[in-house]
Design a protein that fits this description.
Length: 135
């Protein structure tokens, strides 16, 4: 039985060169997109200030803007990273500035554009965190 499994794995590995685009992009990608809610994940922010009723449900959009780069011990992901409240987007073109990483051998990095940070601040301002309850 072990030899059959090993042979099946070799066949899959060798045929992925010819069928990889079809299998991964056309067959698996729609299933993953549906299962991962179109790459949007809920983020619940609790009360940050005592006495305020400010818990908010936001959505984090992690769709890719560029193809990821996989190198020797390096993974570079280029994601939208938009934080949305009430399914309202900022309307910012997140592909406008191609970002570059510094020397990746030394430290981990999170690189964000100024428009992405402004979008996150605006989303927080529109959410319950942007309202003050004076009771």
């Amino acid at each position: 039985m072990r030899q059959v499994v090993d042979l099946a794995l070799v066949i899959i590995e060798n045929s992925s060169y010819f069928l990889g685009q079809y299998v991964y992009s056309d067959q698996i990608e729609p299933v993953l997109t549906y299962a991962m809610n179109n790459y949007r994940f809920p983020v619940v922010l609790p009360n940050l200030v005592t006495g305020q009723n400010a818990a908010s449900e936001l959505e984090l959009d992690v769709r890719h803007t560029y193809k990821p780069y996989i190198g020797n011990g390096v993974l570079e992901l280029y994601m939208i990273g938009e934080l949305m409240f009430d399914n309202k987007t900022c309307g910012v073109n997140f592909k406008e500035v191609p970002m570059t990483f510094l020397d990746e051998d030394k430290f981990s990095q999170l690189i964000m554009t100024e428009s992405a940070i402004s979008c996150m601040a605006n989303s927080l301002g529109h959410s319950n965190h942007g309202k003050i309850d004076w009771n």
